Structure formats: structure tokens, C-alpha cells
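Homework help board

Subject: predicted structure for assignment chain

Our instructor gave us this sequence and asked us to write out the predicted structure in C-alpha cell form, then describe one feature. I got the C-alpha cells but I'm not sure how to describe them. Can anyone check?
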Amino acid sequence: LNMTGGGGLEIWQFKDRIPVASENPIKFGDLGIYAMKIRCGNLMKMHTYLKELGVLNLSQISHTHKPNFYFNDPFGNHVQLVEDMYSFSKQSSLNGGVLGAVIGVSDITKSMGFYSTMLGYTKVVYDAIDSVLSTDKKKCRRVILQQERTSVGGFGDLLGPTQLELVQLLNERPTKIFENRLWGDLGYIHLCFDVSGMAAIREKAINNNCPFTVDSANSFDMGDAAGHFSYMEDPDGTLIELVETHKVPILKALGLYLNLKKRNPNKTLPKWLVKSLALHRVNTDR
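My C-alpha cell output:
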């Protein structure tokens, strides 16, 4: 987590096999999660910093919709930094947490319906025919969606506003990013959302022909926390994880936990309580 504000990262590593990369370079518009979006309050300074670090495939700053740029992590995953001034708490880092994702789709209208109906991304803030990254010859339709945020949930102030960018290639056939590979291989394996009311979401998913593919049904242990998780797929098979958190640690050493099942799910947690999550920071690589 980054306490400046934004979503978190869950990093996986196989212990019993070597994770497999895509056979071919992943292209903008390929089906699945192409990149994660990271919010950044000082984009120019961050770009200079990453250039000095020598990160892979650092792009120039683009001014499409909002100033942004791309680079690759050491495993070839695409990362987009987007200028965004939202802040949960003042920190020393130049960037915040996860703002959203760039997702390749085959039918953008159909996908907009899914993300609007199932996840509340009803607000279209950008919709245009653009050149595909790095070439003027290939075209794509790009749509950026946001939520109205009428209900933000317990961790809503930390997560902040989010956005999803849907990309459909117009004169090229996309390939599936995880074609012939396994969950846990290199790349963005799923997109996770903090939710409440899993039973109602399950029913809605069935009624909209996108039933859960995995459902823990009841509360399960998540290390020091506990909750209920489920998976569903967007129209192109991109995995969406839904997590309803039931319990989070406050002071683990004293056995103090917060039972979220007894709270109003639409009421944000006190800021001091959310900041206390930083006390559980792990400083060593095990």
C-alpha cells in the first residue's frame, strides 16, 4: 500500500515452477490487463527520477486526456504513471498507489456495459479514436471510465477515485495476453475490487450472464485479515477478483482486530485507523 492514496499491489511468485512469459511481446490493445495505472502528483519530477534510474522503455510524456507516461518493470509489465492530485495523506513518495488499469477488449461497447453494470464505472471521461502507442498507422478506440463514487466503502478514502481505460484495436486482431499460460505466470493476472454485499453481487452477476467462476462462499483467512472472495470474468475473460473484507488487524500483538461485518459498509473508516495499517509494514524479504 501507498498511504498517499490508491489501491495496493498483490505480488505472486510460483515456488514449484518457473513462471512463463508471453511468447510474443504484449501489445497495446491485446486482450486482458495491459498496464496498471499509478497516480502521481508531480509527473515531471517522477519522469526525471525514473530516467535517472534507467528504467526500461521509459516513454515521453503524453498529454492525451491527462499527462501520463509508460515504462516497464524488470519483468516486462507495463506501468503507466498518470497525473492525479488526489491525496489521502501527505507522504515523501512522488507517486501514490494504483489508480486503475488499461484493459484490452474486443468489443468496447459490450465491455462498457459490463464494467458499468457490475462495477459502477458509469462515467465516460474520454472516448476517442487514437493512434496505437508507438505507431500512427494502427488505430484504436480508447474509453476512460470512472465511478460516480456515491458510495465509497470502508477503505474508500485510502483507495481514492479510480479509472479504467478500455482499448479496442480497430484494424488489427488482438491476442489474449494469457493465451496458453497459467494464472500466476508473468503479467497482471487479475484486477481486484474491495466490495460489500457479496450475495447481492453474486445474484446480479447471474442475472447479467457473468456468474462467479470462483466463490469462497464464507469467510476465509487472508493472513492477519479475513474476508470473502469471488472471481468473475469480463466479456473477454479478464479475471476480476472481488474481496469483501470482514476483519482487519489494529494491534496484532494485543489481539485487537476490527470486525467490519458489524459496520455500515458505506461509511468510511476513520483516517487514523486506516493509517494504522502502516504499522504492519514488513521490512524484510523472506
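Reply (TA_rk): Your C-alpha cells look well-formed. For the description, you could write something like this. The longest strand covers residues 239-251. That's the kind of observation they're looking for.
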